[in-house]
Amino acid sequence: MRMQNDGHGIPEGKARHRREKLFDAQDIRLLILNCLATRQAHGYELIKTIEAQASGEYVPSPGIIYPNLTLLEEMGAISAAVESGGKKVWALTPEGTASLEQQREEVTAILRRLETLGVLGDNRRIPEMQRAIHNFKMALNTRLGKGDLPRETLYRIIDTLDQAAKDIERS
Q1: Which of 28, 58, 85, 127 is most buried, judged by most C-beta within 10 A?
Q2: Cα separations in angstroms, 79 against 28, 73, 98
């Protein structure tokens, strides 16, 4: 759906909201290699390890982990052993270790992003912060939910939101 503009930067019609991708497939592959650098693991254990690194704020889906495990195996970076019960346990190969070391800066940056997500989640869970965010959303939704808002009112709300964002950013 193409959004039309009213000439003042305010889109008309309904917007489709899409959640931003936090990590791309390459990031996930590096996280997998990093996890396997310390010990062998099943796919589920890798998911749980990454979730723990992000303090529960990010959980990679099986649909991203397992195809990347297969790709890493095809690339020779990891190998799988089948345990009794048919579950695969994955291990880093020497090629995977070398690849991980060559990309250490990228891995460090990805791990920092995971840690930042955890801090963000911890701060969002502070009861006073939850209350303030809830009150803000309620006030904004209540006001925007009223029909026939004059453009001047909408622009004042936009200016207030922009100023609040600047104040928070610079605090």
Answers
A1: 28
A2: 17, 6, 14
Beta carbons of 36 and 91 less than 8 angstroms apart: yes
Tokens of 115: 């840690």
Query: For the whole model, what pTM was predicted?
Result: 0.72
Cα distance between residue 36 and residue 159, in whole Å: 49
Give CB contacts under 8 A, 24+ apart, made by 60-63: 60/23, 60/28, 60/31
d(CA 12, CA 14): 7
Cα separation of 54 and 120, whole Å? 10
Q: How confident is the model at residue 97 (pLDDT cuts 50, 70, 90)?
A: very high
Q: How far is CA 42 from CA 9, 66, 119, 124, in A?
A: 49, 10, 27, 31
- Indicate the helix (H) or strand (E) that contains 78: strand 78-82
